Amino acid sequence: MFVTSDDETVKPYDLVNVGNHSPDGFNWGYGGSGPADLALSILADFLETRKIAPQIYQAFKDEFISKAGDELRITGRQMLDWMGNRAWNKFTKERDPQES
Predict the structure, then answer these.
(1) How many CB atoms lie within 10 A of CB 46?
(2) What residues make up the domain containing 30?
(3) pLDDT one-digit tens code per residue, 54-81
(4) Number of domain units in the chain
(5) Is 15:28 a contact under the CB 8 Å cutoff?
């Protein structure tokens, strides 16, 4: 795995596998256990916590990891936008229509 900084410098990065789904480790391009471990580990690293609900990292897997081709690229901005959109959608779905 590699991380690209804002100045486009590419550096190797050891992502810790915090998942327990796949005996074969990280993978992408389909919706299996390797992609689930990768999604969980990316989110855990980015958010600096291992406390991530399964429905969150599975949705992240579905949106980013399982759709990737030969190369997987996700920016911090994409992750923040995705998390913000999920939070907004959850908020607007749960709001009482009487409050509008």
Answers:
(1) 15
(2) 2-74
(3) 999 999 999 999 999 998 888 888 999 9
(4) 1
(5) no
Q: Could you give the maximum distance between any two Cα atoms of the chain, in Å?
A: 52
Tell me the C-alpha distance between 47 and 4, whole Å. 17
Burial of 52-89, coded b for 16+ CB within 10 Å and e otherwise, reads beeeebbebbeebbbebeeebebeeeebeeeeeeeeee
* Mean pLDDT, rounded, of the chain: 85
- 27 pLDDT band, cuts 50/70/90, is very high
Kindly give the pairing relationship between strand 10-12 and strand 2-4: antiparallel
Any domain includes 83: no
How many Cα atoms sit within 13 Å of 96 on the Cβ side?
Answer: 2
- Which long-range contacts does 21-28 make (Cβ < 8 Å, 24+ apart)? 26/1, 28/65, 28/66, 28/68, 28/72
Residue 3, amino acid = V
